[in-house]
Amino acid sequence: MATLKLFFSFLMVTVHLISSMAANRHMLMGNQMIDPNWYDAHATFYGDMTGGDTMQGACGYGDLFKQGYGLQTTALSTALFNNGLTCGACFEIKCFNDPQWCYPKAGSVIVTATNFCPPNYSKPEGNWCNPPLKHFDLSKPMFTKLAYYKAGIIPVKYRRVLCYKKGGVQFQIKGNPYWTLVLLYNVGGAGDIKDVKIKGSSTGSWLQMSRNWGVNWQTGAKLVGQSLSFQVTTSDGKMIEFDTVVPANWQFNQVFDGKKNF
């Protein structure tokens, strides 16, 4: 009997230690990757339920369905967009403190920043995307998961969360023989990119790329006929090296799978 009691005591201690380790790991990930605090903002929607008007946009993405984002997207106001540096980041959003319009027990939605909600200085009020206001212009399907569409605008709480994407980071090569522009999408982890380096099979060293706009990064190096590798760093400082993901016979406008993700 004493042996059985000792076994159960040992089991309880082990379970407690495992739970504590898991909690500490979660807290560490929160400190490194997401902000656990909720912040106040407002949300509207644009487009219809098909999401057609949400395609393309100021981040440089194209067909959001083909690129893996679907309808789980949002445009950001100036205060959140950060001149495009926030493109690709993920946010958890919930309707807050508006019983007239918020769905009861609606929970939250997680969306990726794919567009910009521009400011409007032509009228004295109702300019929700003007600085310094924090505002989300959601796709209509996302808005209507939180509130009745007739609300038009709702108060929300939001926080940054990790992005979970299927498959590897995708690299679309654009430009011309004298200038290479690379669109990066389907980026997991922090989601937003702060640095990209490129290396051709004949360059011998890593070349610093500069951000052209949104998630498009550029270099003036002549890289046609070379296989290409990339070093991509997200806003949390995590870097992944994608070795020879683009073969030497690549053509402009082709898309290549990095086969790894954050």
TrEMBL record:
Q: Which UniProt keywords apply?
A: Cell wall, Cell wall biogenesis/degradation, Membrane, Secreted, Signal
Q: Does the keyword Chloroplast apply?
A: no
Membrane topology according to the record: Peripheral membrane protein
Q: Which GO terms describe its biological process?
A: anatomical structure morphogenesis; plant-type cell wall organization
Task: Indicate whether Cell wall biogenesis/degradation appears among the record's keywords.
Answer: yes
Give all residue intervals belonging to the Expansin-like EG45 domain. Answer: 56-168
Q: Tell me where in or outside the cell this protein is found.
A: Secreted, Cell wall; Membrane
Instruction: Output the Gene Ontology cellular-component terms.
Output: extracellular region; membrane
Point out the signal peptide segment: 1-23
Recorded family membership: Belongs to the expansin family. Expansin A subfamily.
Function according to Swiss-Prot or TrEMBL:
Causes loosening and extension of plant cell walls by disrupting non-covalent bonding between cellulose microfibrils and matrix glucans. No enzymatic activity has been found.
What protein name applies here?
Expansin
Species: Gossypium darwinii
Q: What is the lineage of its organism?
A: Eukaryota, Viridiplantae, Streptophyta, Embryophyta, Tracheophyta
